[in-house]
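Narrative progress, year one. The postdoctoral researcher (J.K.) led the effort to move from monomer predictions toward full complexes, under supervision of the PI. The following entry was the first complex the group processed end to end, covering 518 residues in total.
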Amino acid sequence: MNNLLAFEARKLIRDGKWQGPTCGMTLGFVQANLVILPKKYAYDFLLFSFRNPKPCPLLDVLDAGNPVPKIAKDGDIRTDIPKYRIYKNGTLFDEVTDIKEIWQDDFVSFLLGCSFTFEKALLENGIPVRHIEENKNVPMYITNIDTVPAGVFSGKMVVSMRPIPEKLVIRAVQVTSRFPAVHGAPVHIGDPVKIGIKNIEKPDFGDPVEIKENEVPVFWACGVTPQSVALSSKPDIMITHSPGHMFITDLKDEELAVL
Amino acid sequence: MNNLLAFEARKLIRDGKWQGPTCGMTLGFVQANLVILPKKYAYDFLLFSFRNPKPCPLLDVLDAGNPVPKIAKDGDIRTDIPKYRIYKNGTLFDEVTDIKEIWQDDFVSFLLGCSFTFEKALLENGIPVRHIEENKNVPMYITNIDTVPAGVFSGKMVVSMRPIPEKLVIRAVQVTSRFPAVHGAPVHIGDPVKIGIKNIEKPDFGDPVEIKENEVPVFWACGVTPQSVALSSKPDIMITHSPGHMFITDLKDEELAVL
């Protein structure tokens, strides 16, 4: 179940033949986070994303009611994700494999870059990615870093953490700086307390991972930020992918590199 | 009248002591294009800018009614530009030095990157900029390149042209690629006909410049694009800076470099 082309993976998912996580399904193709909001929230969310490009790197914004992304021409945002979460008034309401029946003409879909792309780049540069080695979810933490508010949306930034060997930290900054569309350079290197993380062994989301001797915790802005910020404003309806169950685009990872 | 700090230049302009072009007033500070539209057009314009980052590189989007940019903390968008143009229903209505009296609570201000920043980088890399040498306005052309439409906004891309010595073309691509927030890498190198420009000696805006032997015309997306696209949709009111009379921000040119 890997080395599929993007359109093959989307079809498999659309036909109900794959309902698991998408990690590793399509090597080299960009996978994306999904946030769907009614049009009345779309301006504030678009502005929030512009003002917070590191946690909210937009890849595509679909016109209201349109389920076909520009970055996945044969795709359908309503069927091509293995698992969706439906939130009502800020609370998880249901988890489904298809949102065709609840689709509304005023739904605006936002696709946001996810860290899979830059993790591949780290690995290709010989930089270890601990949670992949340990077969866990990446540890994520709510920080004391304020996002820049926009309309109804505001809140603290969520970050993901990867322990990096001291002598590879500079290379890790360089490698991820090339990919601003998938969170880009780290937001913090070193002491977790400086960004309001009290216990590195107790992530707010995901799993704890080992930090070895001579390794430094390095923190990147995380795509959970826009979801948590949007939910805290309690929109009457909001739909996202389920964690790890991403939308697979036609973009190749290297196409997102700035240089 | 150069080497001023950004806030000094803004005060000079605000006090009515400078009404000319801002080029060269504040070396090293980013200057910006201004587009003001009523809130009802703001979502479409923000989406258009996201979908067309090369011609419309957003630096700041102000909340409706707020005249103080984040990137110029003591600044005031209503007074700190030497000359404004007011358009009504898509037609130039007036040119003024202050818009305090016509300011509306629903005005959303967009600041967009301008080419001054990347021209400075070209010069510092020993790459000549012809229209500066000839003391002219940069030549600009309407191309056959479609922008990606968003809501009421759509139209062709406007480009600026700089003749570059053949052996410096690659360096020019590298240098400007570092600055995606001010149009970034070129959109076309060489034959003007390929992008719908019939007569390179007759620009649609600005002045013609000499193309010497062994020089190649290189084309960059131009900030005139969002203005021309917005005007063609005939908003009941729209305010911009007058050409060359820019808003001076607190950002330093190098802060916009991606690497």
